Amino acid sequence: MNVRDSILLRVRLIYLVFFIASVAVLGRILVLQTVQGPKYRRLVEKKQVKRDKVLASRGNIIARDGQSLLATSLPLFRLVLDPVVIPDTTLEKSLDSLADSLSIFYRQEPPSYYKRLIKEAREGKKKDRYVVINPKFFKYLDRQRMLAWPIFNLGKGKSGVIFEKKETRYNPFQSLAKRTVGSLNENNIGTGLEYSFNDILSGRPGVSVFRKIAGGYWKPVIEESKPIEGQDIVTTLDINIQDVAEASLEKHLQMHQADHGSVVLMDVKSGEILALTNLTRTADGEYVEKLNYAITNVTAPGSTFKLMSYMALFEENAVDLDDTVYAHYGKYYFKDAKMTDSKPEGYGYLTVLDAFAKSSNIATAKLVTKKFGKTPEKFIEYIDKFGLSAKWDFQIKGSLPAKLKKPSDKLWSGISLPWISMGYEVEFSPLQVLTFYNAVANNGTMIKPIIVKQIQSANKVTQTFSTEVIKDQICSEETLEKVRKLLEEVVEHGTATNIKNQYYKIAGKTGTSEKQKKNPNEPDSYYTSFVGYFPAENPKYSCIVTIDNPKGYQQFGSDVAAPVFKEVADKIYAGDIEMHRPLADADETDEDAMPKIGSGKYADIAFLCNQLGISNHVTSPSGTWVRTEGSNKSIKMRAVTQGGSQVPDTRGMHLRDALYVLENAGLKPIVIGKGKVITQSITPGSRAIKGTAIKLQLG
Predict the structure, then answer these.
(1) What would the pLDDT profile of 242-280 be if each residue is shown by its tens digit?
(2) Which CATH class for the 600-698 domain?
(3) 61-62 and 49-54 beta bridge pairing
(4) CA–CA separation, 617 vs 610, rounded Å?
(5) Is 16 helix (H, G, I), strand (E, B) or coil?
(6) In whole numbers, what is the pLDDT of the chain averaged over residues?
């Protein structure tokens, strides 16, 4: 083979190789396009296009009045622009002004940046019709101001402006009822009403197709289904009462440097919760809404449980109010376990009424042990009968069941019954205790507390939560009458006389339980409470106050929790006209009745009588200061001894006048009370020894 033939052969071989390679490449391309093409197109589209849900507008949480918003959703906006639709003449004329406005608003880039961004998107090959001007979101008022800017003021068709919206949750009353209102995270996990009613508040999301664009933004291109807005929930919370409860609780928590506390106030007849507040002490000494102790803090209630013990005794006809019990001298042993009373020297003999009012542990435990010592299961059966261990779900998730020890339990001991009788070895949440006391106020009918009364959509009620009865009657009417007397006696003459007032009657019970120590060297700590209702004669509101681990010398329920109850009740009384006692009708007054004129200076009293046309005369005119008394539609005045050796008679005088005459006599007055002098400790007319103290009781 010559050289020429050898070269031709090699060329033909090279062409053949290239031909085979070309066929292979074309075959591979054909396979990719026809066989594997859809697969790879899907992979590309998956990275560039996605179907995603579009969240609905979340419903509002509304206060009792149906108008005040406790939680609502506020819209936030992001500015997107379609520069292609802007008319050429308008863009040329106003782009500089628009760029200036954008630069001033965002404070991130110079005007030239925004001018270049818009022009490049408009004039580029792709004609970008979705330009994210800035990823920053802004408020609705900013959106409204933007609509007045150059170009943007042309309207939807010509301005090219697009406001992408997202929503953020906002509490108009800020920290008020914050823990009760609650919150929700992106995983739909949260607290309070936001979490418990999330399905109703969140509505139903829609679905849209999004395409990924430059900058990593996702542009909605197809709306497959529209979102359905969430519904509103109307709560039973009264914002005014809630505010009062929180303010009073915080004040007293600060006063006692306590760990945490809660207040729950309920409408007796409906079970609607008007206030629910929980405050926890932070590391820096502030108090915030953090945990819902009212429904989750299941703990030993202490002496508030004694009402259940006496109710069981009354149901068994074991005792009556005027029966007596020996409370010993401040300590008593049950099977080698010492029980004490708060009064170190003890109470001695007490009536059943006094034993409860003074909250004697020993008296209560002795009575219960005497009756139920051999049949403790019967005592526990009564507690079940009263509805204390009834299972019911509160509308806010997180409530825990009560813990009631039974004789069949392994941990039951020989001292369990006496200790349970005074509120230990059992555990209840504040809301469970309040529900029981509310039943006493509600003529024996136990009802389930509610905090959401309605669900509504566009102001149209779609669901109503009505009062639900847990137990028709917790005890007999005779027992109910007796326990209500017990509760009234606590405030009238018992451990809570410090909250007694002249305007309305409170019935309730103090509670103080000693907390178990983690180690013996820890100082004593207590869980304090007061629970009751008002006005006692016709109950309208029930309330419980709990304060955990108060510091200082005041560590009892009467000193710590009861004053909070009183402050809240006073504010409610002031604003609830129905609780006020009616004044006597004008036609019922006695026109001939003599006005009440106090003792005092003769010249002043005579002047008043003469001005009012009242007959008056002095039986012994020698004195400047006189005492008065009415007689036959006239006023008699008798001189009061001043100075000298006799003690003046100050009864009926105002304090200022009484002080004047007593000090002139050389005496040292000690004043008790307010108003006029009712009694004085030294008999009038007796010998006055200078420097002697004399007590004046005012009223």
Answers:
(1) 999 999 999 999 999 999 999 999 999 999 999 999 999
(2) alpha beta
(3) unpaired
(4) 11
(5) helix
(6) 86
Residue 564 · residue 508 · CB < 8 Å: no
**Single-letter code of the amino acid located at 67:** Q
Report the half-sphere exposure of 182 (CA within 13 A, side-chain side).
Answer: 22
User: 378, 462, 366, 377: which is closest to 419 by C-alpha?
Assistant: 366
Backbone angles phi, psi at 36, to 5 degrees: -95, -5
What is the largest distance, in Å, between two alpha-carbon atoms of the chain?
171
**Helix (H, G, I), strand (E, B), or coil: what is residue 368?**
helix
How confident is the model over 521-579, as pLDDT tens digits?
A: 778 899 999 999 999 999 999 999 999 999 988 889 999 999 999 999 999 998 887 88
The amino acid occupying position 128 is D
End-to-end CA distance of the chain: 145
Q: Tell me the per-residue pLDDT of 101-154, one tens digit each, with 9 for 90 and over.
A: 999 999 999 999 999 999 888 887 667 778 889 999 999 899 999 999 999 998
C-alpha neighbours within 13 Å on the C-beta side of residue 99? 17
Q: What are phi and psi of 44, to 5 degrees?
A: -65, -45
Of 114, 108, 106, the residue nearest 151 (C-alpha): 114
Q: What does the alpha-carbon distance between residue 350 and residue 356 come to, in Å, rounded to a whole number?
A: 9
If we measure between CA atoms, which residue out of 546, 549, 561, 633 comes closest to residue 597? 633
User: How far does CA 320 lie from the centroid of its chain?
Assistant: 38
Q: Are strands 634-639 and 615-620 parallel, antiparallel or unpaired?
A: parallel
Taking alpha carbons only, the member of 78, 187, 97 closest to residue 149 is 97
With CA atoms as reference, report the closest residue to 236 among 433, 50, 66: 66
Q: How far apart, in whole angstroms, are the C-alpha atoms of residue 391 and residue 400?
A: 9
Q: pLDDT per residue over 60-106, tens digit each? A: 999 999 999 999 998 899 998 888 888 988 888 999 999 999 999 99
Of 181-190, 390-399, 639-648, least confident by mean pLDDT is 639-648
Nearest to 295 by CA among 146, 157, 179: 179
Print burial letters for 421-441: b (CB count within 10 Å at least 16), e (below 16). bbbbbbbbbbbbbbbbbbbbb
In terms of Cβ atoms closer than 10 Å to its own Cβ (0-12, 13-18, 19+), residue 525 is: middle
3-class DSSP state of 450: strand
CATH class of the 242-579 domain in this structure: alpha beta
The verdict on whether omega for the bond into residue 110 sits within 30 degrees of 0, i.e. cis, is: no
pTM for the whole thing? 0.72
